[in-house]
C-alpha cells in the first residue's frame, strides 16, 4: 500500500550529482568506447567495490569513475540514462549538479560537458515531460582561485545554469573559503546552494547561510546540534535536501531507524528526499522514499509533504509552483 503510494507520488529531486548516476554498465560501455582503462573486469566487480567508510572513501572512487566521460555524447548518454530513471520514478522536475572541475582538470572542455548535459535536459522536457534546472558545483577541496576560473568559464553558458553549489570533501573546507567567488556568482545573477552539515559541523550550515547567501542547504542533517540554527531554518522555511541512502552508505547515520529526517519533518523543517549519487548508494529517489518509510512509520500526508516541500524549495517560478501544488 505504502509502496504503491510512493511509486505513484509525483516527485521533485533537488540533490543529484549527475556524475553519481553513472551506473557500472554505462561506465564499462564508455570505457570501451573511449579506450579508457578502469581497474575492474566487469560491472559486477565495480558494484562490489562500493563499500564506503566515509565521504572521502566514496569521493576517491567517484572521481575515478568519471574518467570514462570524454565526449559530448558521453555526457548526453549519462544524463539521458538518469532522466529515463526519473520517468520510471515519476519525477516531474529535477535540479541536478555537475562538477565541471572533475572534467576540465582532465583536459575536457567546459562546453563539451555542459552541452551534452543540456541537450539531454532539453530533450527530456520535450519527450519525457520532465523539467529541470542545472547547478554548477565547485569542488571545495580545490582553492577559491580555481572556482573563480570555473565561474568565468560558466559565464558564456549563463542561460543553462541556474545556481552554483559547493561539494566534495567537507571537513576542513568551510564555506568561508569560497565567500568571494559566491559573492561574484550572486552578482552575475546565479542563485547559490552548498553542501553543509553532512559530515561537517552545524557551524558550516550557518556560514553557508550568512556568507554564501544560499537558498537551500544540501544535506544539513547536523543542524540538530544547534537549536538556534534549527529555529532559524524553521522560521525562514530554509530547505534541506536530505539524501537518506547516501547518509547510511557514508555512515552519517548507522541505521535508517536512527536517521533524523522524519523527526525534522515533524518539527516543520522543510526537508526533502533525494538520491545524491544513486549509482553508488544503491537507489534512486523512489528507493530513498521507501527506505525511510520502511524504517520509520509515517502516514501518507507526511510522505506527500516531502514532495510539497521539494516543490516549494525548487527553483521553478512562482506560478509554476502554484500549478503543481
Ligand atoms: N557530498 C559531498 N560531495 C559530493 C557528494 C556528497 O554527498 N556527492 C558527490 N559529491
Ligand atoms: Zn551531494
Q: What separation lies between the terminal Cα atoms?
A: 23 Å
| CATH classification, class level | Alpha Beta
Low-pLDDT sequence parts: none
CATH topology: TIM Barrel
Helix fraction bin: 40-55%
**CATH architect. name:** Alpha-Beta Barrel
Order of helical and strand elements: HEHHHHEHHEHEHEHEHEHHEHHHH
Instruction: Give me the count of strands.
Output: 8
Proportion in β-strands: 5-15%
Number of helices: 17
Shape type: globular
Reported for the largest beta sheet, the result is: 8 strands, parallel
The unique ligands bound to this protein are: hypoxanthine, zinc ion
Estimated radius of gyration: 18 Å
Count up the domains: 1
Structural class: alpha/beta
Strand arrangement, largest sheet? 1-2-3-4-5-6-7-8
- Mean pLDDT across every amino acid position: 97
Describe the structure.
- Belongs to the metallo-dependent hydrolases superfamily. Adenosine and AMP deaminases family. Adenine deaminase type 2 subfamily.
- GO terms for molecular function: adenine deaminase activity; zinc ion binding.
- Catalyzes the hydrolytic deamination of adenine to hypoxanthine. Plays an important role in the purine salvage pathway and in nitrogen catabolism.
- The longest helix is centred in the middle third of the chain and has 18 residues, at 110-127.
- The two termini are 23 Å apart.
- The protein has an 8-stranded parallel β-sheet with strand order 1-2-3-4-5-6-7-8.
- It has a single domain, classed as TIM Barrel.
- Strand 4, helix 9 (179-187) and strand 5 (191-196) form a beta-alpha-beta unit.
- The chain has 17 helices and 8 strands.
- It has helices at 2-8, 24-34, 43-48, 55-65, 72-88, 100-104, 110-127, 144-154, 179-187, 202-211, 227-235, 244-249, 261-266, 278-281, 285-295, 300-313, 318-324, and strands at residues 11-17, 91-98, 131-139, 163-167, 191-196, 216-219, 239-242, 271-273.
- With 325 residues, the chain is of the alpha/beta class.
- Zinc ion is lined by residues 15, 17, 167, 195, 218, 276.
